[in-house]
Amino acid sequence: MSDVKGAAALRATLVYNLGTLGALASDRFADRVEELGLKPKHAGLLAALDAGPTASQQELATRLGVAPSLIVALADQLQELGAVERVRDPQDRRRQVLNLTPEGRRLLTRCTEAAEATDAELTAGFTEPQRAALTHALRTLGEHHTPN
Amino acid sequence: MSDVKGAAALRATLVYNLGTLGALASDRFADRVEELGLKPKHAGLLAALDAGPTASQQELATRLGVAPSLIVALADQLQELGAVERVRDPQDRRRQVLNLTPEGRRLLTRCTEAAEATDAELTAGFTEPQRAALTHALRTLGEHHTPN
DNA sequence: CAATATCGTTCACAGCTCGAATGATTCAGG
DNA sequence: CCTGAATCATTCGAGCTGTGAACGATATTG
């Protein structure tokens, strides 16, 4: 396209902005849920459990894009917090089904509140149409990349 | 707003989508620049050097939001690739000014091409208005969070 | 009833990033 | 001038994350 790729060529890129802003947003969200004893990945796991009914940990691993061993660690910590309980699947006793407890649901709503607060902080100074456009654009992009 | 925070409440959040999509995009970008011997942070440093004229490494650290010691490591590796040269600032001989070499500029354009390819991959199946809306929304969000 | 595959789990390890300590240089004040 | 404090780049040790290779238990296939 352009012979002399100008200064801001990389910065104008979608992936550049997604990467930097994603890291920034995740850091701020991490600060907020830290007092709950959680990290962003814990929140992601809680959300995944709340979304689908009950999946195997392997499914969860691929859905979250992490190694199965990490699911084990996350589930361990969530179990210590009383947010999750492990139940052997009677149909297949190899499987440990992860169930959200009431405490887990409570924690998830706390996470959602933290996320919404972070959203407000990030989009401070935005007009409402701007905010809507951003949310909508990201949601459509997300829908194109959920492993369904 | 909602009494029983439904399933997709957290997933509908801005910070959730930014975080997951940012990580996804960064991973794909990392795959592409790996063969150049670079990681995303190297590309970020190259872009920062190309943008402003010549900043101190401390400035670069705060601009990229990382520790000064990390700038040293990144600069070391870029120097080994011949992409950057260190020059003592005559005005203040404590400062090591980082200069982009022609090879550095060449690498930067390669990174930009990789980023654009990743963009195309991410937005495959998008209409042109959709792509434009996404780019524009992210750019405005980014402008609100650059430390200027 | 084997042989093989799959599930969750454990464990050792590599990679990334930070923070404190260090030496060199500059600056402020008397 | 000269001395003490501040600032720069750098080195080094340590913490935290996440992965991949084992392993035991269970399921499935022929």
Describe this entry's structure for a reader.
The structure is a homodimer of 148-residue chains. Chain A has helices at residues 14-33, 40-51, 57-64, 68-80, 102-122, 128-143, and strands at residues 84-88, 96-100. With 148 residues, chain A is mainly alpha-helical. Chain A has one domain (7-118, 125-143): Winged helix-like DNA-binding domain superfamily/Winged helix DNA-binding domain (Arc Repressor Mutant, subunit A, Orthogonal Bundle), CATH 1.10.10. The first copy, chain A, has a two-stranded antiparallel ribbon with strand order 1-2. In chain A, helix 1 (14-33) packs across helix 5 (102-122), helix 2 packs across helix 5 (102-122) and helix 3 (57-64) crosses helix 4 (68-80). Chain A is globular and about 60 Å long. The relative contact order of chain A is 0.11. Chains A and B meet through helix 1, helix 2, helix 5 and helix 6 of A and helix 1, helix 2, helix 5 and helix 6 of B. The first copy, chain A, binds a DNA duplex (30 and 30 nucleotides) through residues 39, 41, 56-58, 66-73, 92-96.
| Name of the CATH architecture of chain A | Orthogonal Bundle
Work out the number of β strands of chain A: 2
Broad CATH class of chain A:
Mainly Alpha
Main beta sheet strand tally, sense and closure of chain A: 2 strands, antiparallel
